[in-house]
């Protein structure tokens, strides 16, 4: 993504604001006021979309700086830009909250009660000088954002792409003062989308600069184009009763890389398509140890990095091993992978049976166990020359998920952050299986600083209309309670009730 200030949706919203402002001079009808409300909501939605893009751009720059120390200055510039935009957005949000408070607070729809009032904006923004201060803040942030680009030519090229600015007064304007021209005799509801527009323009300016910084961190690296799952076991042979420990991860490599060299026991091995194959005879029984060395040449700096590791295996007589690839228990409602093999016995002659669970055969000694109820299960393996060997497993239900609003789990939360959330998410923490729990219902209660408690019951994860109205009313000093959270996870017959959350709006 290069930059998005010319997005059709954004241009349409800007044009709508100009048209609606012109119509105010003719008539302050309910239809026009409602149009301003819709416009403000549209701007807020656009701002959220832009912020998601900015978060991804920031993460990409952070990752480049982590990988290459020469890009550390762009990490710092990114953080500076993000902080400038964040502070301006908070300032504009504060002006917005002050206007709404002066207009009698919010009504049941979350809008200012005195939304038609023209004297409030005139007094605050014109007579009290807050409009001039706002202008100074916007211009100061624009200058600070551009100052993060040191090259004068690049800075000049970016100036036009940054929409955060204060418009010049029309040549035929009777008003010679910007604050008077912008805010004098304007209904409160017409000022809100203007404040939101500056917040949106700041985030678009942030996008332009982050794209510029990300382009500066591009390097001609050899990128992974192939992936393979790897199980690195602490020991390749275990005795019954001993713990089996292994690291399971996904390895990425380049099938076209020519900057990798490998040795095993000081003998080079041929690297083809980004990886090597090591073969040796196993004529004797017992533990075997080998030393591996890998050298990787950095394509950017030319630096050679060396990696050493010792690996081993045990050569034994005919035996059977069964290892759960993820955990030493089975979970109800999900596929539990198993790798089953018998040394010295062809895989086609191995017989595997199960009790307490369904067992589905995949390929190459791979199986999945799918139990349907909590309790115990057994896997029995037999084959030519092998007595049946039984392996017991405990069957558990999926652990309770943790409820969250985005990444929020309770405590003190800024009002803007709280209002930006879209619904409840049940998170399965430290659970390695591909499973997702569903939110069935929950209750939300709002306790304002003064006034009665308001309650909403929500079906599903995403906010319904009543819950959304409660969230949009979040203000300093409010307390929100979310409880009676009912969810359903794979394998569940009935719903579960999770612990509630408490948020204090600051």
Automatic annotation (TrEMBL):
Name assigned to this protein: Gliding motility protein GldM
Limits of the Gliding motility-associated protein GldM second immunoglobulin-like domain: 319-396
Domain spans labelled Gliding motility-associated protein GldM C-terminal: 399-503
Domain Gliding motility-associated protein GldM N-terminal: 31-215
InterPro entries linked: GldM_Ig-like-1, GldM_Ig-like-2, Motility-assoc_prot_GldM_C, Motility-assoc_prot_GldM_N
Residue ranges constituting the Gliding motility-associated protein GldM first immunoglobulin-like domain according to the UniProt record: 221-315
Domain of life: Bacteria
One Pfam family, short name: GldM_2nd
